[in-house]
Amino acid sequence: LARKSTINDVEHFSMFLDCNDDSVYDHWRVDHTTTIALVNRVKPESTKSTTFSNCFEKGSESWGRKECMLFSDIENIAEGFIQDDKVVLKARISVEAVDGMKKIVPYDFSQVHDSDSVTLRIGGENVYVSKGYLATHSPYFDALFFKDFKENSQFQIELKDVSAQEFIEFLHIVYPSNKPITVDSYKYILALADRFQVQMHCIKSFASPEAVKTIESTHEFKKFSDALKIALFKRVLALIKG
């Protein structure tokens, strides 16, 4: 992060590094050494850099230098740091130790894993899932697999009007893969969570109220059911309360 800081009525150019600042977990740490450089576009040998080593952890997710250089020096074109109203920053980060970070555990839905598996046929592809696991989290799949539906005696069930790849990404959220919802995936994952009735389970992946508020401003939000909107609202309240 680069920003302007005022210290004793003097404006300085400041550079900071943030790490895992939206984590909902309390016990984690990252030891690192970082060099951040403000590149001189005219005289590379005059590039300004700062190096720091420290430990990021919950409550100390940001660290850097407030007084890297005078902001007036950057604004002075003759100094060579600014061109076309732009500056160039380079960062070299060396991570020395990591503790308490959850790792993404990939789950292969193209393989049969146990006797409880059932084949979901989606767009010509086979997706293998555990009937019991999905039924535990989803009333939709509980009814599909175990209630009075003809599908409950079938070993292969077709799901229509869904992309196989998007459904697999959705499964990574339902299963304990620790795979986060991203800006690229949240629209279809929430739509699938709504369709298959796993709203509360999926929205636990949102780690800040801001992430939920971003969704509320989208066109897709209007299409969500009342149940999903209520679940999102409850998630915001839980995050605010901490």
Highlighted features:
alpha+beta, Apoptosis, Tumor Necrosis Factor Receptor Associated Protein 2, Chain A, Potassium Channel Kv1.1, Chain A, 2 domains, 3-stranded antiparallel sheet, 9 strands, 29% helix, TRAF-like, BTB/POZ_dom
Report what the structure shows:
This protein folds into two domains: 98 residues, Apoptosis, Tumor Necrosis Factor Receptor Associated Protein 2, Chain A (Sandwich), CATH 2.60.210; 125 residues, Potassium Channel Kv1.1, Chain A (2-Layer Sandwich), CATH 3.30.710. 29% of the residues lie in helices and 29% in strands. It has eight helices and nine strands. The protein has a three-stranded antiparallel β-sheet with strand order 1-2-5. Strands 4-3-6 form a three-stranded antiparallel β-sheet, with no helix packed on it. The mean pLDDT is 81. InterPro entries: BTB/POZ_dom, MATH/TRAF_dom, SKP1/BTB/POZ_sf, TRAF-like. This is BTB domain-containing protein.
Write the layout of secondary structure elements.
Elements lengths: L1 E6 L2 E9 L10 E10 L9 E10 L4 E9 H5 L13 E11 L17 E6 L2 E6 H7 L1 H8 L9 E3 L5 H11 L11 H10 L3 H5 L5 H8 L9 H16 L1
Parallel strand pairs: 7-9
Antiparallel strand pairs: 1-2, 2-5, 3-4, 3-6, 7-8
Helix pairs in contact: 2-3, 4-5
InterPro entries: BTB/POZ_dom (IPR000210), MATH/TRAF_dom (IPR002083), SKP1/BTB/POZ_sf (IPR011333), TRAF-like (IPR008974)
Protein name: BTB domain-containing protein
